[in-house]
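Form 12-C: Joint structure prediction
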Amino acid sequence: MKTTIKFFSLLFMLVAFVGCSDDEDDTPDLDAVESSTASNIEAPQTGGAGTDEPEGGPFTKFSFETGAVTDSDTEWDIAFRGTTIAVNGGTVTGTDDEPERNGNAAVAIETGTFANITNADGLTFAQDADGSFAIPTGSDDGWYNYNSATFIASPIPGIVLVVRTHDGKYAKIEILSYYRDAPAEPNAFTDESRVYTFNYVYNPNEGETTLTTE
Amino acid sequence: MSLNKNNLVAFFLIFFCFSMKGQQAESKDSILVENLDEVVVTATRTIRQLSSLPLPVTLIPKKQLQRTGVTRLNEILYEQTGIVMTPDATIGGGEGVQIQGISSDYVLVLIDGVPVVGRSSGNLDLSRFAIGNIKQIEVVKGPSSSLFGSEALGGVINIITEKPTSDTITGQISHRTATFNNQNSNISLNQRANKIGYSIFADRLSTDGYDLASGDEGQTINPFFNYTFNGRVYHDTSDNLSIFGSGRYFFQEFDVPSGASEEKDANAHLRIDHKINKKAQFEYEVYFTNYNTNEQTIDSATGDILFENDFDQNLFRPEIRFNHNFQLQSTLTVGAGYNFENLTRSLFADKVTFDSQYAYAQYDFSPVEKFNVIVGARFDNHSVYNSQLSPKISARYQLTKHLALKGSVGSGFKAPDFRQLYLDFTNAAGGGYSVFGKEVEIAGIERLQENNEIATLQVNSTELGEALDAESSIGYNIGLGFAKGKLNADINFFRNDFKNLIDTRILASKTNGQNVFGYINRESVYTQGLELDLKYRLIENLNLSAGYQLLYAFDKDKKDAIENGEVFARDPETLQTFTLGQSDYFGLENRSRHTLNFKAFYEIPKWDANANLRVVYRSKFGLTDRNGNDLLDNFEDSFVDGYALVNLVFGKTFYKHYSLQLGVNNLLDFKGNNPLAAQDSEVLINPGIQLFTKLNIQF
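Section 2 - Result
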């Protein structure tokens, strides 16, 4: 099964590659689409589950342009705190210590393999709003599944977050793990949680919706 | 270490060859090896010969209970074809019975025809039931709500007690001691003098328990003791009138590290059989049962009560039944009753009450020779959920002298339980999420909104409080029964379609980042497969039996989602996502594709001795989804490998009244490995080999 999948993905890449080279001449000068993995992005929170305190603490802000965590109050696209993910667009939802939304970021939650989500065109984007995050919080509702038998939060396979950045560019991300060093089988008692690893593809050309590197 | 599947298959083949050989040697027969006096009452609520029934029924006779030296209901059930005792997915939970792949929530348990109550998260703990004083256990497979109403979807287990027959006082006293300091003593006394008979039974069980996970604090099964008392009286007032009364009391206390855990279960049952004439009879029945638990978890450092869960459930049920025998062996059975139920629970806001009325009718007849048909239906009217009509039809046709065709179609339902309707629970220790039963969700949400605890409502507010439907199923069984000479064989194909299964969903998100959960009718699942049962008397005192079940159990909606390419899995090494195919879906949790059993019972009359060997095998099964796609697929480390349990018992009777048993349960010392165990620690599936000895004095 796995080999078949590998074979097909290879085949797909080959076809895509050949396909692209055809219209290479017509393409205007655009910056290359970037594909990368962000590893071990720490997203601590205070309070929340298991405590008497409300959820709080600063969000960890991430910029696709720099491909790194940022302290900037404006030049960020998405931000993480525990299992909660905010986008830099819309308004604060009302939880403690949220960053101000001053960009035009938004997110569309898509289903498919990472490779198969190839374009942001025509998708329905949502922004954070009073009382609700654009990426719903809670198990089996947004991006993760919490298993009460193993106490593990697993990213739902097939969920791809297509992001419009604060400055109108497009990216897609696939969260791989919520635990440090993305272990294949995380252990709730020994592996550190609230540590994100995700794949992303970023198109640095404003208004360009293509989300493949080929 | 454990028997692998291939060995077992070889084992069965050898056995089967023997059977064939034996069968050829046998030329004249026509007298069934199986007793014609094997009769059951659960299938039709009338006395019926087991072999003539059109639906699948398993009978566990008293002799099997005695020879195997078991003490509790759960210990004997898992040795029967198509019945599995499943461990709770979360280690430490109780065992649940599974019939035709249908879980314990949907199996009704009766004692002498009346239901026992007291389920924990839907599961009824069958180790509560001592089997020292019973005549036989009957298991009807497939839906039987047409006679028994709610909960009878997967099947009905009926524990039948024994009526005293002897003029003089008879009885037995026994003690059994086993591994883990498991001590079981019981005494029973029976007598029947003229018109009055009585039977008294007392049982005490205690054990040190055992631990399956060595790394953590505490034990998997904490030390406990329990007592069971049962008294029954029988009075044959006249030829036409007889009275039966029974009282049962069970008390159990667990020795938990900090806090308390107590369980009480009491039943009172009165039945009057009134014959009007040779053909017609009334039965008047009154039944009361109470189930009561008291659970407390105390912080050992501060002495504060961390969690309190008290549970007090009552059921009172008068019922009246009428039987009429017509010519040509046809019987009409009608009945009606009223259930008064209430529950007080610390996780509920108020005491809650259910009222339901029901009536049923069944006609058992033979339109032509060799053809038996049973049609029946039951109507249940309920104070809270929608009323239910449950029909069933079954038929049997004797094809040849030795071969019969059987089939049945029936429906079953399970009423939404108290928890699904009235739970009002906020788990402060577990993160602050809330769960509301359907009847209290509007009030619960409003209360949280007033306290500003709700961030957003995730469902349309008009959906709140919409009534839950009963969970329901339709079960199909079709099979062949063969009986010739020393061989009995039965094959049965089954399919059970479930709809409206109640699931939880998110109603709202809270400002603390947690969710509010409610209940909804959503899931549709099916189980299908086949059961094969063979019984063969190899030589005069050696009875062999073998059973096999093939099982497919799937969630229909999840199969559809896979079909639509909407389900994905992640390669655990590369973390790349790929689309899941239909063949990657393993099926529902805790279901083994194959289960096998083999039993040999041997009697040596000249030594007054006996021996038996029983082997039970179940193939691999999954415990829970671990890779986030909410179903069990072949790509996750969640599977318990297939294993076999082998039990061996020797018994000998001395001086007519004293019998001694020596036994080994789990002879191969299977321990297994729970895949959910934390890294670098080990959690077992089974505590391993257990020895026992039992002395029984009959008088």
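Section 3 - Comments
The longest strand of chain B covers residues 515-539. DSSP finds seven helices and 38 strands in chain B.
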